[in-house]
Amino acid sequence: MSIQPVPAFEPPYVMAVFSNVRTSDDSGYPEVLSRMNEIVRENPGFLGYESARTPGGLGITVAYFRDHESLTAWRTDLEHQAAMKHGRAHWYESYTLHVATVERSHGFARNG
């Protein structure tokens, strides 16, 4: 499998940057993450996401949405809200969320 960044989209669009440090409690996390991936993909304005974790434990997920309404639909989804509440109680030591409108976007890929 080739590792590729999410492609550049036609601006404007919205991105949500979720930076976090996890606790040692992993109970149920993989299952909830899988379900959240299913739910967000049902959102017609969801464009994709990228996620990485440093060896030191800082995780960063950047999710892309066509518009603020699509992001709001994701934020207000009842299952997502329950997962966020559980995450604050069990899975995260700390986190920040940054939301921005992307005004410019381009990409590059080496051929061959």
TrEMBL record:
Give every ABM domain span: 14-85
GO MF terms listed in the record are:
monooxygenase activity
InterPro entries per record:
ABM_dom, Dimeric_a/b-barrel, Jasmonate_Hydroxylase-like
Query: Keyword Protein transport, does the record have it?
Result: no
Keywords recorded for this protein, A-Z = Monooxygenase, Oxidoreductase
The name this protein goes by in its record:
Antibiotic biosynthesis monooxygenase
Classification via PANTHER family: ABM DOMAIN-CONTAINING PROTEIN, BLL5343 PROTEIN
